[in-house]
Every structure is written in C-alpha cells, then in structure tokens.
Amino acid sequence: MDYLSSINEGLFFKIFNLSGQNKILDLFMVTGANYVIFGIFFLCLAAFFFGSIKDKKAFLLTILSLFLGFILLKTIGTLIFEPRPFQTFSITPLVTLAPNDSFPSDHTLIASIIAFSYIFYKSKYGVPMGFASIWVGFGRVYSGVHYPFDILGGIIMGFLAVCLAWIIKKKISF
C-alpha cells in the first residue's frame, strides 16, 4: 500500500504544483472543482424537459444511480478514511472545504453517474457531460482538495452505480 500511496501523492503534487502559476488557469480549475457540477445538473434537467425519450430515460437512470451511488459512498466511507491533502500536508488549497473524508470524491462520483447514465443511453449529452465530469475531477486535484485516486474512486463507483442501476432497470424495464 505504501507504493500506491507514493504514486497517489506524487501525482497529486505534480498536478497541485501547477496551481498558483496562472490566475486564468486557477480560475478555470476552481470553476471546475466547485461550479461545473451545477452546470451538469442543469444540462441533465434541460435534457429531461426538452430532450428525446432516451434523455428522459437517462434522467431516470441517473436518479436510480444516484441513490445506489449514495449507498456505495456511505459503505466505502465506513471502511476507508483518507484525510484530504491539505490535512496531511502543509498546503493551502484554492478552495475552502471542511476537513473531512477525501475518498472517494463526492463531486466526481455525482458527475460521473450523470455522465455515464447519458452515455449508456447514447444521448448526445453524454460526451459533454463526460468531459465536464473530468474537468470536475481534475479541478478537485488541482485545487488541492482531493488526491488523484479519490477521483479515480469516484469515477469507478459512479460507473458501478450506473451498471447496477442498468441491471435493475432491465428487471423493471424503463
């Protein structure tokens, strides 16, 4: 586990050390870390109200997946506690955040669930949401509030939640 921790911390510092070099890039990354998730939600709602039938189905898959993702998140949270980078190291993150559990990234989990739900339905919104969720995850590391493995964990758990929801959806057929 020490080897993986050193890789995780090394990647973190390679990304985090880019911050503070360029105000425009910092603003772009802080926007991704904190606010893009609201854009993803807005796009999700817009797709539901104005999109095709598959967009409406993707929205329903998203709701079920978010519920399952929350259960996965709470289960993992009871088994693994990883402090945030600013709790472990003497760094100042670009965003203010409570010193709580870092693994997995809740923002990345939620963004990934939404993106994967639309990707599963081959919606035209899936790819833009996928790029936006990557922006969220990368922004969280760049801003100093998550390690890269927290982001990877959020993506994997998001994918698993959507896969489980897809299986359940097949059983109840929506």
TrEMBL record:
<feature type="domain" description="Phosphatidic acid phosphatase type 2/haloperoxidase">
    <location>
        <begin position="58"/>
        <end position="166"/>
    </location>
</feature>
<feature type="transmembrane region" description="Helical">
    <location>
        <begin position="151"/>
        <end position="168"/>
    </location>
</feature>
<feature type="transmembrane region" description="Helical">
    <location>
        <begin position="27"/>
        <end position="51"/>
    </location>
</feature>
<keyword id="KW-0472">Membrane</keyword>
<keyword id="KW-0812">Transmembrane</keyword>
<dbReference type="InterPro" id="IPR000326">
    <property type="entry name" value="PAP2/HPO"/>
</dbReference>
<feature type="transmembrane region" description="Helical">
    <location>
        <begin position="58"/>
        <end position="81"/>
    </location>
</feature>
<keyword id="KW-1133">Transmembrane helix</keyword>
<dbReference type="InterPro" id="IPR036938">
    <property type="entry name" value="PAP2/HPO_sf"/>
</dbReference>
<protein>
    <recommendedName>
        <fullName>Phosphatidic acid phosphatase type 2/haloperoxidase domain-containing protein</fullName>
    </recommendedName>
</protein>
<dbReference type="Pfam" id="PF01569">
    <property type="entry name" value="PAP2"/>
</dbReference>
